[in-house]
Automatic annotation (TrEMBL):
Alphabetical UniProt keywords: Ligase, Nucleotidyltransferase, Transferase
EC number: 2.7.7.58
Matches recorded under InterPro entries: AMP-bd_C, AMP-bd_C_sf, AMP-binding_CS, AMP-dep_synth/lig_dom, ANL_N_sf, ATP-dep_AMP-bd_enzyme, DHB_AMP_lig
NCBIfam families per record: DHB_AMP_lig, PRK10946.1
Native organism: Pseudoduganella buxea
Gene3D superfamilies recorded: 3.30.300.30, N-terminal domain of ligase-like
Keyword Heme: no
Pathway: Siderophore biosynthesis
Name used for this protein in its record: (2,3-dihydroxybenzoyl)adenylate synthase
GO molecular function: 2,3-dihydroxybenzoate--[aryl-carrier protein] ligase; nucleotidyltransferase activity
Positions of the AMP-binding enzyme C-terminal domain: 448-532
Length: 552
């Protein structure tokens, strides 16, 4: 049997997680099998006019699994999937699990550069896209992928243009007879996307055992049941929306996932009213928009009992407004695609919910808060967050050098987050040391954008830093040192005008959210003692420029 290579947990840890009942030895397809048996007529997914029962979700994913097996897809293969928030997202996810094909779910906002990078790393046999995305609106990108990935056998498109294979046809195909078998529970089920801090986006292998545990535990903490109606208005593949407790948590509990194309408040409020949504998950910037839109529309939100907020820092002042102005309880969620997820609990005192990002979901999560020398700091002091546990990965996919940097010898993963831990174990996120910008919950690896800018013939040096933004929390600012020569100073400045630089980046195929919000031309970049760009100093320089500009 061919499996996907990944860094396993050490045997003693794995045994402990099995004996404690964290790891059940069951594939995640068990979630669907159980609901199909006990709750077949229950509505699993509501999307637009469509409602998909558990029985249908099971039947459709089985049909697709058969159609894919018939085309030679088999256990140990991988797939690159990019679908918007539609029912097919979850149908495809379960179909692939059923035949042991491990997908990575790219964000719908990803463009050529990101998808190509994932395809290079994963070497998928299957790519699934959507015709509503510019990349799959014609066959050109599929042809590029075939050139990059020699083993790529099939590109299926939902709403396919002429000449491409229509995913919907396979979903309708009858008569498959292959015996379906997911990969063993201890093997890779799928890949999560890392927010990243390096030049190439990294993939996170997640096993059935570890992910299913995080789903069950999350559903328990959030008290999901068959009456739960969960609004999924952020990307369905993101760890928050998939497993914290997300759609899989809702499926596990037999509730309904209501899919929304975006968190835009008016559209979401209408869906909430129509479907009697009881719970939603948002990033802080979306909450701010909901708070703005809520006055006069409170009646539409009457069914909502719980709002989860996570993905980026949530200002206490905003948090305090949630119960009063949206009429529901608040839960803060601090998680990561790599594993560890912290929740404030539903019966926590108000202050905890407003001022902390919760505590680890599992008693088996191990958390250390350390100083720069790796020494534990006392409770209440600021430090770097390290963690290991039953659903925290042990290594990025095929990235030994990076793994050597972010894991210590005991298997603790350095999250790159700066936190304070209270005596009760609750964590408050106070900053980060990883070179990443958190733009309203969307993560931008500074190095990735810097590398793209450095390809520009007129750019000598480039550094991307965060700048505070009232709605997004942070936005990105690219600091550029121009390459001298080749014309007058005015020519150089002209060639480096922000619209031209953005156009240049766009042409390289990078996702729109990674385009710098601001550009600053500088004569030099501040350096640290070892000669690297000093980002702390640079952020201060940029902040100074912003203030001067605001005052001018
Ligand atoms: C979630 O996952 P990712 O992988 O997109 O991003 C993880 C990073 C964390 O390391 C932290 O830097 C930041 O996002 N973050 C937060 C936060 N939640 C995540 N920073 C401050 N406050 C929070 N509440 O973002 C994610 C995964 C699962 C559940 C929720 C969020």
């Amino acid at each position: 049997m061919s499996g996907i290579d990944f860094t396993r947990w050490p045997e003693d840890a794995a045994r402990r997680y099995r004996e404690a009942g964290c790891w059940l030895g069951l594939p995640m397809t068990d979630i669907l099998a159980r609901q199909c048996r006990d709750n077949g007529d229950g509505i699993a997914i509501a999307c637009g006019e469509r409602q998909v029962t558990y029985r249908e979700l099971d039947a459709r994913s089985t049909r697709l699994a058969h159609a894919l097996a018939l085309r030679g897809l088999a256990r140990g293969d991988t797939a690159l999937v990019q679908l918007p928030n539609v029912a097919e997202f979850h149908i495809v996810f379960f179909a692939l699990l059923k035949i042991g094909v491990a997908p990575v779910n790219a964000l719908f906002s990803h463009q050529r550069l990101e998808l190509t990078a994932y395809a290079r790393q994963l070497q998928p046999r299957l790519v699934i896209g959507a015709g509503v995305h510019p990349l799959f609106a014609d066959g050109a990108f599929a042809a590029t992928l075939h050139a990059e990935v020699p083993g790529l056998a099939h590109v299926l498109v939902l709403g396919a243009p002429a000449g491409a294979t229509e995913l919907a046809d396979l979903l309708m195909e009858e008569g498959g007879t292959a015996v379906l078998a997911p990969s063993p529970a201890s093997e890779v089920a799928f890949f999560q996307l890392s927010g990243g801090s390096t030049g190439t986006p990294k993939l996170i292998p997640r096993t059935h055992d570890d992910y299913y545990y995080s789903v069950r535990r999350s559903a328990e903490i959030c008290r999901l049941d068959t009456t739960t109606r969960f609004l999924c208005a952020l990307p369905a593949g993101h760890n928050f929306l998939l497993s914290s407790p997300g759609a899989l948590g809702v499926f596990h509990a037999g509730g309904t996932v209501v899919l929304a194309p975006s968190p835009e408040p008016l559209g979401c409020f209408a869906l909430i009213e129509r479907h009697g949504v009881t719970m939603a998950a948002l990033v802080p910037s979306a909450v701010a928009l909901w708070l703005q839109a809520a006055p006069g529309r409170r009646a539409q939100l009457a069914s909502v009992r719980l709002l989860q907020v996570g993905g980026a820092s949530f200002a206490e002042a905003l948090a305090r407004r949630v119960p009063e102005e949206l009429g529901c309880a608040l839960q803060q969620v601090f998680g990561m695609a790599e594993g560890l997820v912290n929740y404030t609990r539903l019966d926590d005192p108000e202050d905890k919910v407003y001022t902390t990002q919760g505590r680890p979901m599992s008693p088996f999560d191990e958390v250390r808060v350390v100083d720069l020398d790796g020494q534990d700091v006392p409770d209440g002091a600021e430090g770097l967050l390290l963690t290991r546990g039953p659903y925290t990965f042990r290594g990025y996919y095929r990235a030994p050098e990076h793994n050597a940097q972010v894991f210590d010898t005991e298997g603790y993963y350095a999250t790159g987050d700066l936190v304070r831990r209270g005596v009760d174990g609750y964590l408050t996120v106070v900053g980060r040391v990883k070179d990443q910008i958190n733009r309203g919950g969307e993560k931008i690896a500074a190095e990735e954008v810097e590398n793209l800018l450095l390809r520009h013939p007129r750019v000598l040096q480039a550094a991307l830093v965060s700048v505070p933004h009232p709605l997004l929390g942070e936005m990105s600012c690219a600091c550029i040192v121009a390459r001298p020569g080749g014309g007058t100073a005015a020519d150089v400045t002209d060639a480096l005008r922000p619209p031209l630089l953005r156009k240049y980046l766009r042409e390289q195929g990078v996702a729109e959210f990674k385009l710098p919000d601001r550009f600053r031309m500088l004569d030099t970049l501040p350096l640290t003692a070892v000669g690297k760009t000093d980002k702390v100093a640079l952020r201060a320089v940029v902040a100074g420029l912003e203030t001067n500009q605001a005052a001018a």
